Write a sequence for this structure.
């Protein structure tokens, strides 16, 4: 997606220059919260797609939930809090702050073969998408949107619509 965006940005027509960003670009935040003083350190970034690992017998909503699960930083992996000025236990998290009009989800169906030390396409991955799964996925991501979707090979593109358009 980034390569396509680079090519579109070379266009002389302003609408084409920003076409992919206008349709597919959203904002996410990577943050860390100190467990002692609750100071948050956040870094906002833009995304054009969400990459979701898809192991055998998994559901899309479960994988998106796993992507958004917070990580506890403790022991040898403590966080240097800028307010406390020392190493502290903390919580690291990812949040979506702004969804694009069209959310592009790349389904990562590859596995690492320890025998050949190569990445290979998983042969046992089957993608099944049910309407109920999509509604649940959207509840995980943003309660004020619903989505309609279309399967596109190994990608899933979801059009985000305000609930009033149901």
């Amino acid at each position: 997606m980034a390569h396509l965006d680079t090519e579109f940005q070379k266009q002389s027509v302003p609408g084409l220059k920003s076409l992919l960003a206008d349709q597919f670009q959203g904002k996410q935040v990577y943050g860390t919260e100190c467990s002692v003083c609750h100071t948050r350190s956040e870094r906002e970034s833009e995304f054009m797609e969400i990459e979701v690992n898809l192991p055998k017998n998994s559901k899309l909503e479960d994988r998106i939930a796993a992507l958004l699960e917070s990580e506890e930083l403790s022991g040898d992996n403590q966080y240097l809090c800028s307010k406390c000025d020392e190493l502290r236990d903390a919580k690291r998290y990812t949040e979506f702050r702004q969804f694009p009009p069209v959310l592009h989800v790349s389904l990562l169906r590859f596995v690492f073969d320890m025998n050949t030390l190569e990445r290979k396409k998983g042969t046992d991955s089957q993608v099944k998408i049910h309407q109920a799964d999509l509604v649940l996925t959207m509840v995980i991501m943003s309660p004020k949107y619903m989505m309609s979707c279309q399967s596109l090979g190994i990608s899933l593109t979801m059009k985000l619509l305000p609930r009033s358009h149901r």
